[in-house]
Write a structure and sequence with these properties.
With about 525 residues, the protein is α/β, with parallel strands linked by helices. The chain folds into four domains: about 180 residues, P-loop containing nucleotide triphosphate hydrolases (Rossmann fold), CATH 3.40.50; about 70 residues, no CATH class; about 170 residues, P-loop containing nucleotide triphosphate hydrolases (Rossmann fold); about 70 residues, no CATH class. Helix content is about 30%, strand content about 25%. The chain contains 18 helices and 23 strands. The strands form five sheets. Strands 1, 4, 7, 8, 9, 10 and 11 form a seven-stranded mixed β-sheet that branches. Helix 14 crosses helix 15 and helix 15 packs parallel to helix 16. It is globular, with a radius of gyration of 24 Å. The relative contact order is 0.13. The N terminus is likely disordered.
Length: about 525
């Protein structure tokens, strides 16, 4: 445990969302020097300016928000703090001393530890090994002791309230939420003075576990930089926040006196109302486009539902209630043990993702970097993969035809043309998600099956994704969407199913579709909100 009276520490987290009229610039009270001070940080990658003269201060015991769109420079700042990249210009101080980390291990030795948004765990190794590296415990013979490492890892997991993860499990076998918890525990295990958490709740259906840890650490004097796209969480945890836009620090504001609308304006340079679209009408009177009957499989029991033309059907559930296997079965990634799926009245072939796509189901996976994109390829190649047969001229690819299709798909998701020729690994998470959605749309599905499509993206990108989904269903398609954000489902879906214990326990629509009602079903209490 972190001990009272121990050396002051600092935590950095990442995630913004919310609504709010004019910004109030604020400095923390007191006369103490900031624990973390960044002055004039700049970083360029060739002609691309990632950061330009960014300045930031975080005080001991403060939970400080870092806000901005994808591509605003947050990830670059996190990498500089973590020792992964070096700033071209500027100065960093931690606890009044120069801070110039040259590597991840160098940053840790200086008291800085990071839990990354794009998880850095090694999937082919156990939880225990991931937690104990690079200081694995050896046995009497000098060989790494699996038993001792698992015992030490179990103690760490227990200390931070993670009781459902087996230290002997392979990381690859964990759910995304479990991986996120292990990533955070590993960062905490280094007992840092500065802890960087990047979008720490993006994969957590119930972030209360993390909130308790953050509040405890700040009470013990830990300086916390919280980076998040969820403004509701930011407001709960943070008094101050610094806004980045286009690689520059725009303002540090008092979050208690600054409306969400003003924060959004600072982040994107325009008002949130300008990006809103009317909800698509529910035009599902022509019968179901996608029909699922008696579906069963891993942790799924007798699931039945229909999605009509022009309908967005949401799915809400707490972590591990069977929603993930349902989506993966529809995508051809997991076998069904019982049930049937039809698309426009015809039996769907779900033996593989390619077969599911031929049946009319376009799937957007949970983890874009490990399940979706090909990091070594250009963005245009990632988008055009499912339609290569349409761009071949004999044995060769017609680049003009490919570029035309990619440009059309990119326009549907507001992906700037300049990104198409870049390696997709160089794009921000939000732009990678746009490219992945563009690929799904380009593949020509009649039904979208989207698993948490806005996880870890900024408010502007969310609006773009919402608009693309609405445009798709307005043209007669259907969409099935799972989201960890209940407010998103209430805002976007015409109806919402609630999954609990592998079964559908609620189906709500219209004025009954509220967060309170979804929570009551999702926690197994039935419709106590009625």
């Amino acid at each position: 445990m972190f001990e009272a009276g121990a050396v002051t520490k600092t935590v950095v987290l990442t995630d913004p969302r919310g609504d709010a009229a004019s910004a109030q610039v604020v400095r923390p009270t007191g006369t103490h020097a900031p624990y973390l001070r960044a002055e004039g940080l700049s970083k360029a990658y060739g002609a691309t300016i990632a950061l330009s003269h960014v300045s930031l201060e975080v005080h001991a015991g403060e939970v400080h928000a870092l806000l901005g769109e994808n591509g605003a420079g947050k990830s670059t700042l996190v990498k500089i703090l973590s020792g992964i990249v070096l700033a071209d210009q500027g100065r960093l101080e931690v606890d009044g001393r120069p801070f110039e980390p040259g590597s991840l291990l160098g940053a840790r030795s200086a008291g800085v530890s990071t839990a990354f948004q794009e998880l850095s765990l090694l999937p082919n190794l156990s939880v225990a090994v991931n937690l104990m590296l690079p200081n694995l415990i050896k046995g009497p013979t000098g060989i790494n002791s699996a038993r001792r490492n698992e015992q030490a890892a179990a103690a760490l997991l227990q200390e931070f309230g993670v009781t459902t993860v087996d230290p002997a499990s392979l990381v690859a076998d964990l759910s995304l939420a479990e991986k996120q918890r292990v990533e955070i525990v590993r960062a905490l295990s280094h007992r840092p003075r500065l802890l960087v958490l990047d979008e720490p709740t993006a994969a957590l259906a119930d972030p209360g576990w993390l909130f308790d840890i953050v509040e405890r650490l700040s009470g013990e004097g830990v300086a916390i930089l919280y980076i998040s796209h969820r403004l509701a969480e930011v407001r709960r945890l943070c008094r101050r926040g610094t806004v980045l836009r286009n690689g520059r620090s725009i303002e540090t504001v008092d979050l208690t006196g600054t409306p969400d609308a003003e924060i959004f304006r600072m982040m994107v340079g325009t008002s949130q109302d300008e990006l809103k679209h009317k909800a698509a009408p529910n035009r599902n009177g022509r019968g179901p486009r996608l029909a699922v009957q008696g579906l069963a499989g891993r942790n799924v029991h007798d699931v039945s539902f229909e999605v009509g033309d022009g309908e967005i059907l949401g799915v809400a559930a707490l972590e591990g209630q069977g929603q993930r296997p349902i989506f993966r079965m529809l995508a051809g990634l997991e076998p069904m043990t019982a049930g049937s799926v039809t698309v426009e009245g015809k039996a769907a072939d779900l033996r593989s993702p390619a077969a599911a796509l031929r049946s009319g189901i376009g799937f957007l996976p949970e983890e874009r970097k490990t399940e979706g994109i090909f990091l070594g390829l250009k963005t245009s190649s990632n988008i055009s993969l499912p339609v290569l047969g349409r761009v071949l001229r004999g044995a060769f690819i017609s680049r003009s035809r490919e570029n035309a299709l990619v440009a059309e798909a990119s326009e549907r998701v507001d992906l700037a043309k300049r990104y198409q020729g870049m390696r997709i690994a160089a794009l921000s998470g939000g732009n990678q998600q746009k490219a992945l959605l563009a690929r799904v749309l380009l593949s020509g599905p009649r039904n979208l099956v989207l698993y948490d499509p806005t996880r870890g993206v900024d408010v502007g990108t969310k609006q773009v994704i919402y608009a693309a989904i609405r445009s798709f269903v307005e043209q007669g398609g259907s969409a099935l969407i799972y989201s960890t954000e209940l407010a998103e489902l209430v805002h976007l879906a015409h109806r919402c199913l609630v999954v609990y214990g592998g079964r559908i326990v609620g189906d709500v629509a219209g004025s009954l579709l509220t967060e309170d009602r979804l929570v009551s079903f999702a926690t197994g209490h039935g419709d106590i909100a009625a």
